[in-house]
Amino acid sequence: MKELLKDLVEIPAPSGYENQVRNYIRQSIEPLVDEIRVDSMGNLLAVRRKNGAMRLMLVAHMDEIGLMVTHIDRQGFARFVSLGGVMPIHCVGGRVRFLNGVQGVIGVEKNPTSYEIPPLEKLFIDVGAANAEECPLRIGDVAVFERPFLDLGKRAVSKAMDDRVGVAVLIETLRRMEKSEFEIYFVFSVQEEVGVRGATVAAFGVEPDLGLAVDVTATGDTPKGHKMEVRLGAGPAVKIRDAGMLADPRIIHWMVQTAEKAKIPYQREILEFGGTDARAIQLSRSGVPAGVLSIPCRYVHAPSEMVDMEDVENAVKLLLRLLQTPPRLDSHS
Ligand code: CO
Ligand code: ZN
Predict the structure, then answer these.
(1) Is pLDDT above 80 for 332?
(2) How confident is the model at residue 192, as a pLDDT?
(3) What's the confidence (pLDDT) of residue 331?
(4) How far apart are the first and last CA of the chain?
(5) What separation in Å is there between the alpha carbon of 46 and the centre of ligand 1?
(6) 2-64+159-322: which CATH topology?
(7) Is 192 a catalytic residue?
């Protein structure tokens, strides 16, 4: 699965510009599904039919955070805004690659009296141009961080684990599954990082009976880290809440029971910030029971996001078991 993950994370696909990764996913899964299509926003929807069964929407987002050029000055330096949650602390000295192949470095306005973290407005991209005429960029061009995949054995690092690791989990699940108790919509969504926009329309269109997002979550296992009971290597996490949702208690129960029966390690997750596509599913139409299977990830939204491959493997195992074990959704009692 590491090979699949490596392929996926190396493809540049900032929010709104997911074409390349969508093509890759489509090619990998087309023979495995009954139906596949791209909706008007660019979400990829692949269906495994099962007449009369509950309809489950599984979603992982294809996009990654990125940068968009807003202004080019006379010396050829480009100013930018973020596409999604890019933090200035991770930018200075970093390198970026535009979708048209242009590469550059991120510099910062000089302030020799301060080591404070500058806001994004103080940063610029330098593509090595001598002036504006030489600068090959245009307003609206988009870039991602330039940082190659790093294989650390049991652990792996990339600029785009969020959420290509979720994409990899869905593809691998599709490859390994034989039959399922659900009719399943595998949805690869666009524009999650700018506010779960793709999943919002996908959930409306699919009209699922229940939904699960597979996405990364933060951890509390680094020096003086944020107090959080999730760590790398202790299994995938069952989300209880984040800033965007309270996971449906019936879905939490279903996930926990299934993990315990199958003796698959899992963690209970409370994330005090952030959100996922599951929020869009939960609030779709007149409401849908939804939850999240989370992959613990250090340094989320930094250019070096780290996951543990055993957690990834266990996420696939748990998902495969969940597909054999429909939950009871008849009442809230
Ligand atoms: Co994210
Ligand atoms: Zn994500």
Answers:
(1) no
(2) 98
(3) 72
(4) 40
(5) 23
(6) Aminopeptidase (3.40.630)
(7) yes
